[in-house]
Each structure stands twice: as structure tokens, then as C-alpha cells.
Task: inverse folding
């Protein structure tokens, strides 16, 4: 696990949640918002003690209503310049034809 470099990205191991034990990199100082867009789920990972710690192991819905209600920290994390937004590594990219993969492809 590495510490933050001056003016460089944060890099370290993730603690808890779906990224537990995996390495991650954030270009922003407070951590990252991990998004599984197809499943409609996301997790906040905060940078502390040389690693990324999940705020809550239970996923938050990507969208469930207006962004001004309590518990909408995922909206603030995505909009403010303190958290990176990362796609979940298990989500595959669309095929070359621009269509998302389907079962049996």
C-alpha cells in the first residue's frame, strides 16, 4: 500500500465493500465513488490511514429521487472536486458495435 504523493494521485488498498483487498487509485483528495451503473448501485470510499475505507458496505442506489434529501452524499461526491468517480472493475465495456453485452454473447 502506498501513501499519497505530493500533487499526485492517491493509491492504496481498499478496506470493506466490494473492493475489499483490491488496489485503487483516486485523482482526488478524499477518495472515490465506485459506481456499478448496470446494477444501479454505488459505494463511497474515503481516504484515510493510507487506504480507501468503504463508508457503508451496503450499496446505495445510484438514483432514488432528488439530490437534496438526507443521505445523498453520493450526489455531492460525484459533483464536488473531492472524490473521483470510478466504474466498478467487474462491469464490462460495450462491444465494438456500441451495444452492451448480453447473455450468450
Result:
Amino acid at each position: 500500500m502506498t501513501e499519497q504523493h505530493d500533487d499526485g494521485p492517491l493509491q492504496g488498498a481498499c478496506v470493506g465493500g466490494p473492493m475489499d483487498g483490491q488496489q485503487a487509485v483516486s485523482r482526488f483528495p478524499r477518495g472515490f465513488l465506485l459506481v456499478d451503473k448496470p446494477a444501479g448501485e454505488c459505494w463511497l470510499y474515503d481516504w484515510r490511514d493510507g487506504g480507501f475505507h468503504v463508508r457503508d458496505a451496503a450499496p446505495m442506489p445510484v438514483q432514488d429521487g432528488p439530490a437534496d434529501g438526507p443521505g445523498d452524499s453520493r450526489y455531492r461526491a460525484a459533483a464536488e472536486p473531492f472524490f473521483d468517480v470510478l466504474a466498478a472493475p467487474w462491469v464490462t465495456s460495450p462491444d465494438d458495435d456500441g451495444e452492451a453485452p448480453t447473455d450468450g454473447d
Residues 90 and 103 are 15 Å apart (CA to CA). Helices lie at 73-79.
